[in-house]
């Protein structure tokens, strides 16, 4: 009989539930507890383990389970919560959450994620750190407008200089890390050949979207949440909208898309054609983002650099 595991993770503990037996067990979310959990699950050899993202508290457990050769899927928490509502389970406790996650695993059977090696995890962390520093720099730059006192203005200026140095340092580390990873380096170089795609955006794509180059254009657009979603019922024809998918990645592709609209002739012409047809500018931007993503996907799939004649 197939065995499915649901894990609900908190900061200090995590609850494990089995389906169909519905047995539960609690572990401490530390090195000892994770080791005990891995030993237990290696003995059971479940068909699938499902957990929710919990702000990084799931990372060590996920990595250890994957290192043990166990299939792990990290599923959007909202998707599981909607599943619980559909099952009529409105109550919410750690034990109940683990049980509903296990039931979700048995019925929906999401695809397990591929393990991420240590080097890729470091690169991913560097890209995330750069984003944090850029956000702090933006916030501090906004303070300058209201720095009426000379002392405050100097403090803001010094902080901006410090953040700029930190951003430069992290970008240097990203570049050095890519140099030590031939496979990812080749992918980032191919992506960077496209106008408006810089080192940081290329590193973001190869770490946050490893499926790039492995799926078709519709699948990659749907994965990022850029595929139009039908909203029809009977004779009613609703407005097509995008959504779902990897929201954070989609948000971080917004600025590169604006750059592409300005300096990438293929994306610029595509965007302008949509505007000329009367499309709203934001609708045209989202469509341009989807166009850019599918082009990048095709580049990696064909193992070739940017070529405007083949897009």
Key phrases:
Nucleotidyltransferase, domain 5, 9% strand, 311 residues, five-stranded mixed β-sheet, two-stranded antiparallel ribbon, single chain, alpha/beta
Stretches with pLDDT under 50, minimum 5 residues: none
Number of domain modules: 3
Number of helices: 13
Which class of secondary structure composition applies to the elements?
Answer: alpha/beta
Major sheet characteristics:
5 strands, mixed
- The beta-strand count equals 7
Distance between the termini: 49 Å
> How much helical structure, as a percent, in the residues?
55-70%
Order of helices and strands: EEEHEHEHHHHHHHEEHHHH
Strand order of the largest sheet: 3-2-1-4-5
The value of Rg in angstroms is 23 Å
Overall pLDDT level = 89
Measured by DSSP, the beta-strand proportion falls in 5-15%
Give the CA-based shape.
Answer: globular
Account of the 3D structure:
The chain is α/β, with parallel strands linked by helices and 311 residues long. It has three domains: 4-108, Nucleotidyltransferase, domain 5; 118-180; 200-310, no CATH class. Helix content is 59%, strand content 9%. The chain has 13 helices and seven strands. The protein has a five-stranded mixed β-sheet. It has a two-stranded antiparallel ribbon with strand order 6-7. The longest helix has 30 residues, at 150-179. It is globular, with a radius of gyration of 23 Å.
Give me a quick take on this structure.
The chain has three domains: 4-108, ATPase, nucleotide binding domain (Nucleotidyltransferase, domain 5), CATH 3.30.420.40; 118-180; 200-310, no CATH class. It is 59% helix and 9% strand. It has 13 helices and seven strands.
